[in-house]
Amino acid sequence: MKFALINGQRQEARPGLRGTCPACGDPMVARCGKVRIRHWAHLAKLVCDPWWEETPWHREWKALFPIEWQEFVQHSSSGEKHIADVRTERGYVLEFQHSPLDPQERKAREEFYQRMVWVVDGMRRSRDKSELLRTIEDATPINPTLWRLRGFWDECALLRDWCGSRVQVVFDFGVNDLWFLFPVDGTVYVAIFPRAAFIEFHRTGSGAFAQFYPSLVHAVTDDLAKLRARALLDQHQARTLVATGFQRYVAWRQRSRRRF
Ligand SMILES: [Zn+2]
């Protein structure tokens, strides 16, 4: 962990320091070796929160937000507690996810945190970015930053892993844009948006992202309505075709009967 408590104050690890865990209260020791980034470790156990994960990528993301928002200990009414990577002033939990996550565990975390955003490390598997870009090539562009994916999008492992999520999911490929995943009723959309504006929104509650997200929801809703209208029309045309086919068959039977 990045922080432990020393005399009630959050402190980063420095050689020789001892502190206590902000979540479980157990003693912690500062680890300042040469291989891993400086961190705090529990003295007597591995971790106290089974959901805990920290990599240099986590540290970079956490450092973009005020210290008091980082490693926020969130309690539920039943007494369960977990350490959120970042909890913003406006009550959003940002969870930075590097490792693969079992769907059941993902669901449990979404139910625990409620108002949360997954920021997923898209750089863990080397093929993830190219698979996503290939999927976009076959997708239907809705506007310059939004695409509706066609069938076979589940050949992209990243989409397959995350499209069951009920909260915002963002993929980080280490570039200036973040990729947003937007699954609705079996149809999957993806959109891109500048990383800086996403960070600004969660830091300040304002900026371009405040308009982007509602406009994304609007564009997706609009597109879905068009899709449904087209599907209804197709159904109607199919019924008409069946009806005319049947009428042709009846006429043919009548003609055949007259002949024999
Ligand atoms: Zn602990």
Reconstruct the topology from this structure.
Layout: E1 3-6, E2 9-12, E3 18-20, E4 27-31, E5 39-42, H1 56-62, E6 70-75, E7 81-87, E8 93-97, H2 103-113, E9 116-121, H3 128-137, E10 140-143, E11 146-148, H4 157-162, E12 168-172, E13 177-184, E14 187-194, H5 195-204, H6 208-259
Parallel strand pairs: 8-9, 9-12
Antiparallel strand pairs: 1-2, 3-4, 4-5, 6-7, 7-8, 10-11, 11-14, 12-13, 13-14
The structure holds zinc ion.
Zinc ion is lined by residues 21, 23-24, 26, 42, 48.
How large is the radius of gyration? Answer: 26 Å
The residue-averaged pLDDT reads: 92
Strand order of the largest sheet: 6-7-8-9-12-13-14-11-10
Helix-residue proportion: 25-40%
Distance between the termini: 91 Å
> What is the overall shape?
elongated
Which ligands occur here?
zinc ion
Write the H/E string, N to C. EEEEEHEEEHEHEEHEEEHH
Task: Note the beta-strand portion.
Answer: 25-35%
Structural class, from secondary structure content? alpha+beta
Total number of helical segments?
Answer: 6
Structure description:
By secondary structure, the chain is an alpha+beta fold. The chain has a domain of 48 residues. Helix content is 37%, strand content 28%. The protein is built from 6 helices and 14 strands. The strands form 3 sheets. A 9-stranded mixed beta sheet has the order 6-7-8-9-12-13-14-11-10. It starts with a strand and ends with a helix. 26% of the residues are buried. The mean pLDDT is 92. Zinc ion (ZN) binds next to loops.
